[in-house]
Amino acid sequence: MTTSVTDPATPVTSAAGTTVASVSGHTIAGVPGRFVLDARTNHLVTDSRLGPGEAVQAGELFLSALVSCAMANIEATAHELGVPLTGISVDAQHRRGTEDPTRYDFTRLTITVRGVEQRDADALGARFVAACPIYNTIRRGGGVDLTVVAA
Question: In what order do the strands lie in the sheet with 34-39?
């Protein structure tokens, strides 16, 4: 399925009624390996791992999405359940494949939930695992539709 978005500031709703997220990107003339990503009205400079190395790189963005989803999910669930957490810290790591560099050998996620008992932390973690599409896409693997267009 190919989704076209004419205005990146306007969310697109699919036939199923769910919002389709969209991010676009473009190169910067004269700076090999440097890119600008656009998500709605937000813009982010990134570097390839072979580029300048000053800005966040794609693999780090991948981990950032996982970390952000974990914190948002756990914070919302704690509020919903009345669990009095005082803070959340999330650390994520992965290593580019040693035998197959087109994959990551592992992805590790450590969530520290402060101000709660372990049973509450476990319950919050279970709700996160049950609900996060980023975590579950990584865990189960997901498909990607690719279209390449010469212009």
Answer: 24-27, 34-39, 42-47, 56-57
Name the E strands within the chain: 12-13, 19-20, 24-27, 34-39, 42-47, 56-57, 87-96, 104-114
Selection from 148, 143, 138, 145 nearest residue 62 by Cα: 138
Confidence of residue 16 (pLDDT cuts 50, 70, 90): low
* Amino acid, single-letter form, for residue 72: A
| Rounded CA separation 69/128 (Å) | 8
Residues 87 and 139: their CA atoms lie apart, in Å, by: 25
**Residues 63 and 92: beta-carbon distance below 8 Å:** yes
What pTM does this model have? Answer: 0.82
16 secondary structure, DSSP code:
T
Residues 6+ apart with CB under 8 A from 52: 31, 33, 34
User: In terms of DSSP H, where are the helices of 14-117?
Assistant: 58-81
DSSP secondary structure code for residue 22 in this structure: -
Q: What is residue 132's three-state secondary structure?
A: coil
Give residue 32's identity as a one-letter amino acid code.
Answer: P
- CA gap 138, 151 in Å, rounded: 32
